[in-house]
Amino acid sequence: MSITVREMTLSETELVIDYFFNSTREYLDMMGVDPTRFTPPEEWRKGFKHELPLLPEERRVFLVSWLTDDEFIGFSTCDTIKFGEQANMHLHVTNPDLRQKGIGSECVKRTVDVYFDRLKLKRLFCEPHAFNTAPNRALQKAGFKYLKTYMTVPHRFNYRQAVNRWVIER
Q1: 164 HSE (CA, 13 A, CB side)
Q2: What pLDDT, on the 0 to 100 scale, is given for residue 29?
Q3: How far apart are CA 4 and CA 151, in angstroms?
Q4: Which residue range is the domain that position 159 belongs to?
Q5: What pLDDT was estimated at residue 98?
Q6: CATH number at residue 113
Q7: How many domains does the chain have?
Q8: pLDDT-based confidence at 27, cuts 50/70/90?
Q9: How far apart are CA 21 and CA 6, in angstroms?
Q10: CA distance 159 to 31
Q11: Which stretches of the chain are DSSP H helices?
């Protein structure tokens, strides 16, 4: 299986929108996501259309696609970007057949390289739901260091929850 990790294209952002809007309530809950906090899909499209052409140092969000044999299998987003310093990443394996198979950790390793290169980062954080085993395991395998577990609202689409804070530095 050949894995490709690269910057997301505008057309691929539709897959991100579909992923969130077509996921079951149970799956979203496992990630700590509250779909009642979603803005309409058209607002997502407008935001992606605005962000993707910007230079990395101007972006509020940076998106990376994960593919195997040219098939989209997942993605990562990076936000809370302080160019040249730090950012927060999120990770999603969209193909249910590939979840909990170890592919996420390989995609995360390669994604880290993209973020550090394009955003000139010194450190990268990730805060998955503390009880969602798969992303926590993937981060550990990808070389992230566990910092702490605490209560927070990690993103505007999340509810208050326990998260594990992970970091990788260069």
Answers
A1: 18
A2: 94
A3: 34
A4: 3-169
A5: 74
A6: 3.40.630.30
A7: 1
A8: very high
A9: 23
A10: 10
A11: 13-22, 25-30, 41-51, 103-119, 133-141
